[in-house]
Specification:
Elements: H1 20-32, H2 34-55, E1 60-72, E2 78-81, E3 87-90, E4 93-108, H3 113-179, H4 186-219, H5 228-231, H6 249-255, H7 257-278, E5 283-294, E6 304-313, H8 321-388, H9 393-427, H10 440-447
Antiparallel strand pairs: 1-4, 2-3, 4-5, 5-6
Helix pairs in contact: 1-3, 2-3, 3-4, 3-7, 3-9, 4-9, 7-8, 8-9
């Protein structure tokens, strides 16, 4: 593999394998996977937390209203307490009273604590969007990886069936030669042993194939056996392009959602220091109220009373609690910075490992192709010579075993090559649109789920 100098659009990298079934499964997983659904729910929750945080920047206004009716029994008066606290004595009959009230309060953000809280909530919301993208990439790659495994297991089962057919033929030939007195019964027993060992591998491969298919079904939000009909038809292991544009490290880091999520977590932790510092300073609050009371609704606004209040509070003694909170938030920011640097190094490591894994898998594929060709020729010659009595069964069995090994090795190398290519695409940050931050609104528009 040669890496091109410039980056390429890897948003839908699975299309590069030119396998419609693979593309269909990855798209289905992106829409129906339950881990992705949980990530979307966390993103929606972070959006509402930002709305709550922003509300602290504005005044709080509340209103109230009341109606009171007092009836007097015949022959006497009654004392009525009005909503404003005054006491009125009435004669017979009854008396009505109406009241309206309006209250407002506002906490002045003198030292930026509220603004920093909004900043932290915004960073957490953006981090939740990148966490969603990270989950999405993981699910897409897991579907593709298990799809490659399923196709590889199908190829191995086909190899085992072909080997069993050849070994059945060898066992029959060995039986004829024993009956003719040309060889001892050791040849028959050795042939039986080889065939049984090959047959024993079939149930294990079938179990591995079933596990891969079941895993794909669960990843696409379905019951474990739902995809068996779709994948029953044997298809080759998907092959990707020969060249992948890895690009420069800086661009790779901007493509990686986990790196960008770590950067947003760092921003939120840094804002937390400002929130804690603001608690060290005085807090100034302003509140006001308007009240109106009347005995009839038409006169409710004739008399209006109001008040305006301002208050300041300052913590005098808290046993070092607020200072400790500042230090704690600084430590959290230091930890977030270390996590960010770690995510950068991990991203670079993933790219490096994937490139090396792809290069070595390609080399192994070339060598196993040579080995498979040579082992096939040797097995044909050994089979012909055994039929003619020019060689013993041990030599034939050795050549047949080498053929089986080379054939399965070639399948494994092709599987490893496709898996390494998938890992490289994910390491480069492919599988999502990195040009914009995922938000609850954009996901709602694209999926229509909420």
């Amino acid at each position: 593999m040669t890496a091109a100098p410039d980056t390429e659009d890897l948003t839908r990298w699975w299309n590069r394998f030119d396998d419609p079934v693979l593309g269909e499964l990855v798209e289905q997983a992106a829409a129906a996977n339950l881990d992705v659904a949980q990530a979307i729910a966390r993103l929606r929750q972070a959006r509402e937390a930002l709305v709550v945080s922003r509300a602290s920047l504005f005044p709080t206004i509340g209103g109230s209203g009341g109606y009171n009716r007092t009836e007097t029994l015949k022959g006497g008066g009654t004392t009525v307490t009005l909503p404003d606290g005054t006491v009125a004595t009435t004669g017979g009959g009854g008396q009505s009273s109406f009241s309206l009230g309006l209250d407002a309060s506002y906490q002045l953000d003198l030292f930026g604590g509220t603004r920093r809280s909004v900043e932290a909530s915004r960073a957490q919301y953006e981090a939740a969007g990148f966490d969603y993208a990270t989950t999405l990439l993981s699910v897409e790659s897991e579907v593709a990886r298990n799809y490659v495994l399923a196709r590889a297991y199908q190829a191995q089962l086909e190899n085992a069936k072909e080997s069993l057919a050849i070994q059945d033929d060898n066992l029959e030939i060995a039986g004829f030669r024993v009956q003719a007195g040309l060889v001892s019964s050791i040849d028959v027993e050795e042939a039986r042993s080889s065939r049984a060992q090959t047959a024993a591998s079939v149930p294990q491969i079938e179990q591995q194939y079933n596990a891969a298919v079941s895993r794909i079904a669960v990843l696409t939000g379905q019951a474990p056996g739902a995809l068996k009909p779709l994948l029953a038809e044997m298809r080759p292991i998907p092959e990707g392009p020969e060249d992948v544009a890895a690009g420069i490290p800086v661009n790779v880091l901007r493509q990686r959602p986990d790196v960008r999520a770590a950067e947003r977590d760092l921003a939120a932790a840094t804002a937390g220091i400002g929130i804690a510092k603001a608690q060290l300073f005085p807090a100034l609050g302003i509140s006001g109220s308007l009240d109106a009371n009347a005995s009839n609704l038409n006169a409710i606004f004739d008399t209006i009373t109001g008040g305006l209040f301002a208050g300041i509070s300052q913590s005098i003694f808290n046993a070092g609690q607020l200072s400790a909170q500042v230090r704690s938030n600084r430590a959290a920011a230091d930890g977030a910075f270390a996590a960010y640097k770690s995510s950068v190094l991990t991203a670079l490591e993933d790219v490096e490992n994937a490139i090396v894994a792809l290069r070595t898998a390609e080399e192994r594929e070339r060598q196993f192709a040579i080995a498979y060709d040579a082992a096939g020729n040797s097995a044909i010659l050994a089979r012909s010579q055994y039929r003619s009595g020019l060689t013993d069964f041990t030599t034939l069995n050795t050549q047949e075993t080498a053929l089986i090994s080379a054939r399965n090795g070639l399948v494994q190398a092709r599987s490893d090559k496709a898996t390494a290519l998938i890992a490289l695409y994910v390491a480069l940050g492919g599988g999502w649109d990195s040009s914009e931050t995922p938000t609850a609104a954009t996901l709602a528009n694209s999926t229509g789920q909420y």
